[in-house]
Amino acid sequence: MAKFGKESIENLATCSVELQRVAMIVINYFGHRITEGHRGQEKQHKYFLEKRSKVDWPDGEHNKTPSDALDFLPDSVTWNDLNGVNGEKIQQQAVATCYMLAGYYLAIGDMLDTPLRSGADWDSDKDLKDQNFNDIVHIERRNK
Fold first, then answer.
1. CA distances from 138 to 37, 96, 105 (A)
2. Quick one: how far is CA 8 from the chain centroid?
3. Residue 114 is part of which domain span?
4. 131: which of 36, 52, 95, 139 is 20 to 30 A away, CA to CA?
């Protein structure tokens, strides 16, 4: 059974209790790390300028204290895999693995009455082809 490492635990500790609860169940089924929880002003603004985020400080779910968003990375995936550095086939496998992990988050969130949405399906309509901004490693709480 997988468990979170020190950095993941520290990042998860910056998230809402509801997100922590979901993540602590998901880790029992799918090995991954929490790469980010709360995001400060400087980093949020940087990501906005780099077009890695659609929102600037303080409007992101990562900017709340505690954070209503987290970013993850499956244990079997590296950032280079996701960015295509290791080849197209590896990138496709990495993306598919991230989609699968996001599905665990969404399902466990629903089971715990903690509705979530994925950065791979912002409008939560289960159509992954209608996105104009993909952030497949992002999970956030959504209003019921």
1. 10, 14, 10
2. 12
3. 6-141
4. 36
